[in-house]
Amino acid sequence: MKFISWNVNGIRAAVGKDFLNQFLAFDADVFCIQETKAQDDQVAEALSKLEGYHIHSNSADKKGYSGVCIISKTEPKSVIMDMGVVQHDNEGRVIAAEFDDFYLVNVYVPNSGEGLKRLDYRAEWDEDFSQYLSKLRQKKNVIVTGDFNVAHQAIDLARPKENYNKTSGYTQVEIDGMDKILSKGFTDTFRYLNPDKVQYSFWSARFGARAKNLGWRIDYFLLDNRMNSMIKKAFILDQELGSDHCPIGMILG
Hints:
The chain is α+β, with helices and mostly antiparallel strands. The protein has helices spanning 11-16, 19-26, 40-46, 119-137, 160-163, 172-182, 189-193, 209-212; strands at residues 2-7, 30-34, 54-58, 68-72, 78-81, 94-98, 102-108, 141-147, 186-188, 202-203, 215-216, 219-224, 231-236, 248-252. It contains eight helices and 14 strands. Strands 3-4-2-1-14-13 form a six-stranded mixed sheet.
């Protein structure tokens, strides 16, 4: 099975570029989108030209904000919206699709914000999300993908020393949160197969960061440890344009 995940920074804007052609060229069995910035009906309209796919989305109460979507060739057995935690469930950040052999969770983790204003909230969110995954994992294997808004290790961003504990996405609180999620029984597939590879999935829109490759790896496929023998490939498609993020992928066999 081929999985692709992409923070598109607005699905309607992405479709206005080349997203539909890119989507078809990837030919993924499951395609996860973060930051749709659209309500469910707007997502459906934007993707209405896709034939033969099953589309499920979860949008935020606030219009034009956040939002996640799962597109699959196979109809899921069930779809679960949100974590079931009141203080988190109005921002459209979590959607899970149940298939025969696993749950696929697509997540857009909250950014800690300018000046780290949401860092305390982010710590709560990571704790609750890790508990949510742990409970889901008691039922069957779990695959988690999305924009986690954290560079987990120094190798995962271009300027670790300059950003550590100063910039959203590379504080010890966020790193600890990622450790907690992984400790529930998950493997970072890209780093598992590419322990020393320097490659990024996000670049700031400022200062010509992408042209200089001053990036961050904050988008992940986390695989249930019980499925590790199935990993064939984990990759970052950093030549694909259309967003401040690029797509990432995983192949299981």
